[in-house]
Amino acid sequence: MYASREDIGYDFGDDSKVGSKPIKPNPNIDGGWAWMIVLSSFLVHILIMGSQMALGILNMEWLEEFNQSRGLTAWVSSLSMGITLIVGPFIGLFISMCGCRTTAIIGGMLNALGWILSAYASNVHYLFLTFGVTAGIGSGMVYLPAVVMVGQYFQKRRALAQGLSTTGTGFGAFLMTALLKYLCTEFGWRNAMFIQGAISLNLCVCGALMRPLSPKDLREKCVVRSDSEENQAKALSHSTETIKSNGVLSEEPEKKEEAANEEVLSSVQHVEIGGKSASGRSMYGLRLFKTVSQLTVTVRKGFALWYSSYFGAASLFTNRVFVAFVIWALFAYSSFVIPFIHLPEIVKQYNISREDNVFPLTSIIAIVHIFGKVILGIISDLPCISTWNVFLMANFTLVTCILTLPLMQTYIGLAVVCALIGFSSGYFSLMPVVTEDLVGTKHLANAYGIIICANGISALFGPPFAGWIYDITQKYDFSFYIAGLLYMVGIIFLLIQPCIQKKQPREKSTEEAQV
């Protein structure tokens, strides 16, 4: 249907041009330290996304502990998952000012703090603040840098690298489900959350591994992409491109603003030199003022870049296909997270807890999800295969499984559907690649931040909605049906907009021919 990347979107401006002479690529691009970035991102997905996929275990503990409705209790899990993704665009501001490494380390500490404080919760509303908001924001501050850094370090095999790193979600869901079950059984859910908070401190180590590329490396980065129509490689020279994930500004500031900032700092230095005979208190005040001035300059530059990226003239929302992609994201993610939160309750209702204890359905989704991400990543990297088409086929399979799941009331039937859900949901590894194809590498950080923000909104309202429907009907069937239909609406938007995008140039050329 769409054989090349150009068929599914366009870039904002010419952020890459074919150079006359190929530039020698940096050894850390597609190799070397790039694999350490993949390892770091893999561990981040285990500790963050994997833990969130295992929250169904804690959700049952909270239902018994606080004796609240399923709709209200589900808000704890949905807040954590939703806020992790919703804060994506705002985390871009931190990345612009501090870089990915600093942002991820701070986020790791905040995430661990949220888990530890939640161990002392006295009611569900307390968990809203500690686990939902605090741990959620911390997770978001680690998750976005982990994704963006992989996109920066890889060019030739970006889909495979993203697939390998995001398999951490499947591994994490499998490991964390077993770990939380064991900890809750042996120590209780409060001590389990305290221990999980200590484990989450490893996110700081993952952030420390996110070594930024130098500006020289970024300017000399050679991008080689295979053209599926011509089957030849093109060397692309990004002379001014700088991805925001390393904290270096991709656009030069205005000369007037830069001159004014330098003038302020130089005047402070002159005053400091001339005041050597002054008291130590005055010198300390001057140094403090100089530090504050430098910090102010950094914040202003970062905010200006962040603001122009989202609200400037080159707005991402001028791309119709990207807008359709955002609409799809608003409905898609809830269909994936609802089974993880409510499947333990469904298993209990169908009296198949004995089989589920041997091999939990959520673990089946998690394990097959690993293979789905890797296999779909490998398939989409083939020169004769369109990443866009693979992405759409996986979405059709997933929405079919969501609509079919309520019809299965045996363990075998649910296991088969859950396996298909796990494999088809492997399209998550393709989302950064599809996003880059739509808006270009230059806008990847901001665009992907918007996409995961839309996914966060979907995750925020999905589980509570399913719980609310259950409180009314005493069944989860309608929850899956409604979620599946909304998901289908999002897929239809993805199908319509690319067709309009391709049709407009043809109509224009016909009119010119008639003239």
Automatic annotation (TrEMBL):
Keywords: Membrane, Transmembrane, Transmembrane helix
Record field: compositional bias (Polar residues): 237-248
Record-linked InterPro entries: MFS (IPR011701), MFS_dom (IPR020846), MFS_trans_sf (IPR036259), Proton-linked_MCT (IPR050327)
UniProt entry tagged with the keyword Transmembrane helix: yes
GO molecular function: monocarboxylic acid transmembrane transporter activity
Residues annotated as transmembrane: 33-55, 75-95, 102-120, 126-148, 160-180, 192-210, 321-341, 361-379, 386-405, 411-434, 446-466, 478-496
SUPFAM superfamilies: MFS general substrate transporter
Membrane topology: Multi-pass membrane protein
Domain Major facilitator superfamily (MFS) profile per the UniProt entry, residue ranges: 37-502
Region (Disordered): 233-254
Cellular component aspect of the GO annotation: membrane
Pfam families: MFS_1
CDD domains noted in UniProt: MFS_MCT14 (cd17429)
Subcellular compartments: Membrane
Top-level lineage group: Eukaryota
PANTHER family reported in the protein's UniProt record: MONOCARBOXYLATE TRANSPORTER, MONOCARBOXYLATE TRANSPORTER 14
Name of the protein described by the UniProt record: MOT14 protein
Organism for this UniProt entry: Polioptila caerulea (Blue-grey gnatcatcher)
